[in-house]
Amino acid sequence: MYVKNPMNRLQVTRLDLSPEAVDCIVFWTKNAEPMLDKLDHFKNYPYYFQFTLTPYDALIERGLHPRKKIIETFIRLSDIIGPERIIWRYDPVFFTPVFDMKMHLEVFEIIARKLSGYTDTCMFSYLTSYNKCKKNMQQIKYFIPAIDDAVAFALKLSSIAQAHNINLKSCASTPAFSVAGISTGRCVDPELINKITGYKNFYPKDPSQREFCGCAASVDIGAYNTCSHGCIYCYANYDHDQAFRNFKSHNSSSELLYGTLSGDETIRARKTRSSQRKSAQMEMF
Questions:
Q1: CB-hemisphere CA count at 13 Å for 83?
Q2: Which residue, 42, 150, 135, 70, is CA-closest to 104?
Q3: Could you tell me if 16 and 37 are in contact, meaning their C-beta atoms sit under 8 angstroms apart?
Q4: What value does the mean pLDDT take over residues 22-29?
Q5: Domain range for residue 68?
Q6: For residues 169 and 52, what is the distance between their CA atoms, to the nearest angstrom?
Q7: Whether this model's pTM surpasses 0.85
Q8: What is the DSSP letter of 151?
Q9: Where are the beta strands (DSSP E) in the chain?
């Protein structure tokens, strides 16, 4: 696969995606339905899913299926791969006049009840309000709670999750959450990867991530502005018109996620690190 540098289209990295070169694939998704009949293609790869399910409506998540259908897809996927390999993501969390704390807790309880037995873990985080997202979100009058309120709300989520045999973990959160007894999660989780693969590899922390992120070092093979879901809070798809055009330009015979090479790029192969499987992790959206 070829991956363009998002800051310089002339710089392209070539990645080896053969089973021998991949420790684990982590899929991020809000709709895994298109994958359900394609999982056999990944029978030689360890993988798991980060599957997002939130309370928001079509004003905020404009291109998604109704929540009922997404939950049905989540359950179908869990039946295929098992609850350990499908993480429920309840993020990003933010509040609006419509989606206040009461609404969040009500919808979270509904989703948790329906997913009980189909996932072991729920990962949550509060919205990081990047400048490129603020313009898209102006219309909804959102806000992020102060740290004390944020921790108190997280504890309520944790209590609901535990009642349905789901372990709530925080994503890239400040130490205040750990002090309050909320587990710190890792999206690219070395413990889960080793459990799935049966290996005991050491995966160093990714130095390029945020201060409190505990994820293992990985390679992101996604691309900005390629998702057609149109979620107004998304930092990776902030230009929805461009995202739709890029999505339509996907070429199944190309090594790129969308489009084709122009011919003037410089292509360099990424060296895989030395490990028990002599491989590099791959992270896929």
A1: 12
A2: 150
A3: no
A4: 94
A5: 2-284
A6: 14
A7: yes
A8: H
A9: 2-5, 8-14, 22-29, 47-52, 86-93, 121-126, 167-171, 183-185, 219-220, 266-269, 280-284
